[in-house]
Write a structure and sequence with these properties.
aminopeptidase, metal-binding, Met_Aminopeptidase_Type2, WH-like_DNA-bd_sf, metalloaminopeptidase activity, 9 helices, six-stranded antiparallel beta sheet, globular, Arc Repressor Mutant, subunit A, single chain
Length: about 425
Amino acid sequence: MSEELVQKVEKLDVAAAEESANLENAEAANSTEVAESGDKKKKKKKSKKKKKKEVFEHCINKEFNGTFPPGEFMDYNLQRTTDEEIRHDFNVKEAQSSWNKFRKGAEIHRRARKYAKEQMKPGMSMIEIAEMIEDQVRAMSGTNNSLEGGMGFPTGLSLNHCAAHYTPNAGDTTVLQYDDVMKVDFGVHVDGYIIDCAFTHTFNPKYDPLLEAVREATNTGIKTAGIDVRVTDIGEAVEEVMESHEIELDGKVYPIKCIRNLNGHNILNRQIHGGKTIPIVKNGDPTKLEEYDTIAIETFGSTGKGYIVQSGDCSHYMKAFEQPPGATVRLDRARKLLATIDANFGTLPFCRRYLDRIGEEKYLLALNSLVREGILTAHPPLVDVKGCYTAQFEHTVLLQPTRKEVVSRGDDY
């Protein structure tokens, strides 16, 4: 830097320092003058300001009556809601609007099963029993539109070693016997909200220990279930209770086993199995139940292997909730049958008797074609080893924010 430039900078620094000192002296003098003016002068000025403020506030309050208009609102243009929060909000609205519909379905179920228990007797055919229950449900639903209300799924009347998914087809001559153990599993829906509830019916009291074991296991599952509970913990509790029981039949003692590949599940609108599986044995699944879930707690006990396989003539069918990509309906008869299924059942389960009832004929080829294409799913009977006995109890439970509602509970079970 040149000597001349250095001298200029030094002069500027001196000038700035003098100006700062003069400013500080002026402020000090002003402060002294204010302090010497006395308390009287201060009070006088203060009272004037207060008076003006009170008049101003009075005018504003009188004009707006204490409630003032907002300014302009503008969005942040930020996405602050996650997919999880959106899903939760939808579930809340869906659940709260559905509870009364579930309760209506539950009341229909209680009355229909009470009537059935009073009427069922040895010697009745399976078709007679199934249609008796279904006629009661349809009559109480108050609609002829099967999509608005009625049967949520076909009446299961599985006997003895058959644990589930049996309902009679046309021409079935099976008759109920005194020594049969019959699982009565039927659904009621109101606007697509399904009550899934089942019980086991016997005439011979020798089966009472089996029924008691399964009933107690189901109640344990209900007691254990709740928000944030892992499904494996429910299964573990059920298994512990179920397998603490045994039964003596004809002089031989049988341990009562959980049927480990049958499970409970959550229920969605017009979707009986909603994607969550609730085991009845400990299986290590850490999936947790959530607020506003609707769940079916169902347990199955067996004197056999405790493991089921598919066997027998299929009666239960259901349209896949999500259609497989690329699925095509090649047969004209199959297209017409699918249109009938859509108009009468949608994605609710149905059986061959229901197709007979609405006037469908010679449909088996078309039905099987829809199954092969993946448009429908078939659900054949599920059986344990022949000669054993199986039992089932089930309830639908609403997981509300502060409590759970066993909505299908009745005086009977």
